[in-house]
Amino acid sequence: MRDKKLFFVLSAFLALSMSGCDYLGARDNLNKGVRAYGESDYQGAAEFFEEATQLDPELIEAELYLGMAYLQQFIPGAVGPDNQRNADMAVQTFQSVLQGDPDNTTALAGLASIYQNTNQIDLARASYVRQVEIAPDDPVAHYSVGSVNWMIVFNKTIEREPEEIASLIEEGQMHLDRALELRETYEDAMSYKNLLYRQAAELIPEDTEDEEALAQREELLAMADDWFNKALETRQRNAELAAAGLAVVVTKLQSNHRRYATVSKSNVNGPEGRETIEDPVTELLRVGAQQLIQRAVEAELAELLSQHGGRRTETGNAGVVRNGYLPERELANGTLNWLQ
């Protein structure tokens, strides 16, 4: 009898020890995964997060990171089994997170992103709508519904009844208005109000003989133009504010920069004995300049799409569209390397 009690005590002790080891191991892998994720090693990060979830299935943070790691490896528009697997695993992982935490907005956003980039727009919309229900004061959530509604009505390859299109446009405008109430300088929300008004105008035939309908069409186009101009003005104002803020930061860093450069100059030598200065201010300026250039390019692109948004190919597809986004890649120039 005594031996049996001792056996149960030892068994319980071993079980607690093993669960304690799993707990520590899961968090160790989580930390390693976060570090790899921060270094853009998404494949390595996924392996650590997968190990963490196996050691502790209730560690939702690791499972959420695992979904994000798969999402980061997915390339929109690319074809191949590995890319499809990353998309499938991201969806599976985010859905698993939502089973345990139905109100997890990060998982919903991840799902919506995958659905949107795999042309499952209606599923993406459902995820965005759910985000709004959970976070009604999040301007990005409202903007997402408005923008995805435009994607749905702009896609002419799927036939929809005019009533459905009108309803989607009205809903999209409502969410964009709410996004602008929450963030008055939301330039992208203004751009999509412009685009939705143009889609509303397209519901009225340009050659209609109904003068009242034709006047309504012209009014919708005029409202679209107004929002287009507001978006451009706001984008320029936001860029100016960003540049001014950058200038203030740079000014504050100047004295520290000179002191930092002096120390680095005495300690670090570059190739051929030349002194090298590791310059945080230059990096800050470079990033700021890239952001300003991107804003200018986006403004020009928005204007182009607005001017030619009504063009269609013979099959009914949009005649002028924008490219998607792919991860930044390094380019190797073999000619220059050979010349050097």
Q: Work out the helicity level.
A: over 70%
Number of strands: 0
Radius of gyration: 27 Å
Shape: globular
> Cα distance, first to last residue?
84 Å
Characterize the main sheet: none
Which percent band covers the strand fraction? under 5%
What's the rounded overall pLDDT mean? Answer: 78
Total helix count? 12
Structural class: mainly alpha
- The ordered H/E elements are HHHHHHHHHHHH
List the uncertain runs: 9-18, 268-279, 324-340
Protein model, in words:
The chain has 340 residues and is an all-alpha fold. The chain is 76% helix and 0% strand. It contains 12 helices and no strands. The protein has helices at residues 2-38, 42-55, 60-73, 81-100, 105-117, 121-134, 139-154, 162-182, 187-202, 211-267, 280-308, 334-339. Helix 2 packs antiparallel against helix 3 (60-73) and helix 3 runs antiparallel to helix 4 (81-100). The N and C termini lie far apart (84 Å). The relative contact order is 0.05.
Key terms for this structure?
single chain, 340 residues, mainly alpha, 12 helices, 76% helix, 0% strand, disordered C terminus
Provide a brief overview of the structure.
With 340 residues, the chain is an all-alpha fold.
